Amino acid sequence: MDKFLKRKHDSCTDSASTNTSNVNDDTFNDENKIKKVNRQYCNDYLNFGFTYVDENDCQIPLCVLKPYTIAESLILPACSEIVQIMFGDDAKKEIMKIPHSDDTIKNRIIHMSDDIEKTVTNKLTTNKLYFALQIDESTDISGIAHVLGFVRFIDENKIVNQFLCCKQLTERTTGQNVFDSISSYLDKFNITWDQCVGICTDGAPSMVGSIKGFTTLAKKKNPNIISTHCFLHRESLISKTLPITLKPVLDKIVSMVNYIKSRPLQSRLFKKLCESMEAQHVCLLLHCEVRWLSRGKVLNRILELKNELLMFFSKRR
């Protein structure tokens, strides 16, 4: 993980300054070529709770969800060691007094969550801002249904996208149940349906049903609401009926990915090959029909590693 945080990406670093007059252009360009290093992300970093996001073609470290005990097992021990080296044992004793139990971390996370909710709802209530909703219903691995709400509004000439709520559906997942759940949440913070100008959902009957769908019930509260269909769902439906010229290509890609991902030995060999070629990535992504948004990411990764794949399969003819 240290290498990932310390190594510099060529697109993230500025060019060296040229204020030394006795350095000619050829020497300067040669030095720049030597300094450029492609930083690679490794999947093993997930064991330490880190992944990355792309910003301007630069891999930025991002901490992901970890147990509350991470403060006791990783963060505080690391901080205490740093403080001890830099300031001595007395400073280490002081930093160890910081409350870091799992209950304390949990309470602080809940407090931050409540603060975000309060900030968003206060803006919508106090300023009577118009907003748009994106609603989706999903079932977790334990079989419990949840309705997720995202809100978009304009605040100080800036478009703000924010997670609004996650409400559990204890009984059915009909349009009426979804509407009652969202409506009760809005009523709790004195947010009216008159402020809602748009709703985006998928094409499920519980969402777009003409009689008891969520959007239909919402329009009864505010007829001026504009309902839209999530374009990603339509994109997925279109991809189900690929043209004859494209389907064999996708099938071939899936077989290539499965050949490597389903065999640990081949995965290790492919990773080693990517590392030796200093590729941007060292592994392929596995397409899952349930998570259909993964299809685009799989194809992008194939395109980025096309040279490595060509060499890998050429050696196995």
Automatic annotation (TrEMBL):
SUPFAM superfamilies: Ribonuclease H-like
Residue ranges with Polar residues bias: 13-26
Region (Disordered): 1-29
Highest taxon, organism lineage: Eukaryota
Protein name, entry field: Zinc finger BED domain-containing protein 5-like
UniProt source species: Sipha flava (yellow sugarcane aphid)
Gene (name only): LOC112689890
